[in-house]
Amino acid sequence: MSATRLTLPSPAKLNLMLHILGRRPDGYHELQTIFQFLDYGDEITFAVRDDGVIRLHTEFAGVPHDSNLIVKAAKQLQEQSGCSLGIDIWIEKILPMGGGIGGGSSNAATTLLGLNHLWQLGWDMDRLAALGLTLGADVPVFVRGHAAFAEGVGEKLTPVEPEEPWYLVLVPQVSVSTAEIFSDPLLTRNSPPIKVRPVPKGNSRNDCLPVVAKRYPDVRNALNLLGNFTEAKLTGTGSCVFGGFPSKAEADKVSALLTETLTGFVAKGSNVSMLHRKLQSLL
Ligand SMILES: C[C@@](CO)(OP(=O)(O)O)[C@H](O)COP(=O)(O)OP(=O)(O)OC[C@H]1O[C@@H](n2ccc(N)nc2=O)[C@H](O)[C@@H]1O
Ligand SMILES: Nc1ncnc2c1ncn2[C@@H]1O[C@H](COP(=O)(O)OP(=O)(O)O)[C@@H](O)[C@H]1O
């Protein structure tokens, strides 16, 4: 008999660089960015129901049940596949929301892959990634599960193999609105496209950083603090700030200096998502 219950990881991502090339007619911005996963994230448990009902049992502060990306992903997949089964879902949420580490997008991707498995739909990655894109620009990379150079709004993905250092990720206690940053008149929107692969060294800047650092003093402080120890970078539109270290011990040493007002976590960078490693082990 096939499994009816499954627990899967839902990892975070970092944007190792992010360049904004221009604005499309629909208002969205054309980007070039490198996504890498962290071996750190939420854990989602799924249990099949035979009555077709989709129910997320864990409450999220400020996110109504039907607006949760987990529920949206499950409903879309059920509708588009014509599946008559339903699902009970619980999540152990440790990823900060609105921090630029992609928790919501990752949760959506884990849901798509988990339900494809439990409902035995047999959808391939292209189809799941295309559905994922309708939920958010960052969902496809989590569906495919490999570190990638991304173009367009993040949906054109080329697998890459950056180094996999240990990272210290600082979590300033502010949520940055992606829409607000992309509508700031001071945002750099004309970075020249990188045409060479792999992306040459020296291109690791994030074009959102100056605008985010100007608007959010807490992010500025985090960048200054981490900058005393390593190159401090912003992921996505923030608020999280990260830096790489050659070993866990060195990342832990800096992490130990953090206070209650500025927390963080240490995690290993990974080019294959822990979600995919777990799914592979089930086959
Ligand atoms: C820029 C990234 C990099 O990873 O930031 P983070 O969300 O991770 O911080 C993502 O691609 C974010 O993608 P996604 O998560 O889908 O963006 P949303 O929150 O839906 O976007 C909110 C708003 O930001 C603007 N927006 C977003 C993405 C983009 N490429 N161009 C834009 O102009 C649009 O006005 C959009 O309505
Ligand atoms: N399952 C989910 N996890 C996190 N955020 C969610 C989820 N579903 C909906 N959201 C909404 O999406 C927003 C962005 O969340 P998230 O993906 O964690 O941040 P970011 O895009 O900055 O990395 C949240 O502020 C929240 O309102």
From TrEMBL:
Residues 68-145 form the GHMP kinase N-terminal domain. It holds the Pfam family GHMP_kinases_C. Pathway: Isoprenoid biosynthesis; isopentenyl diphosphate biosynthesis via DXP pathway; isopentenyl diphosphate from 1-deoxy-D-xylulose 5-phosphate: step 3/6. One of its GO terms (molecular function) is 4-(cytidine 5'-diphospho)-2-C-methyl-D-erythritol kinase activity. The active site is at 13, 138. Its EC number is 2.7.1.148. It comes from the Bacteria. Keywords: ATP-binding, Isoprene biosynthesis, Kinase, Nucleotide-binding, Transferase. ATP binds at residues 96-106. Residues 208-256 form the GHMP kinase C-terminal domain. It catalyses: 4-CDP-2-C-methyl-D-erythritol + ATP = 4-CDP-2-C-methyl-D-erythritol 2-phosphate + ADP + H(+). Catalyzes the phosphorylation of the position 2 hydroxy group of 4-diphosphocytidyl-2C-methyl-D-erythritol. HAMAP family: IspE. Belongs to the GHMP kinase family. IspE subfamily. NCBIfam families: ispE. This is 4-diphosphocytidyl-2-C-methyl-D-erythritol kinase.
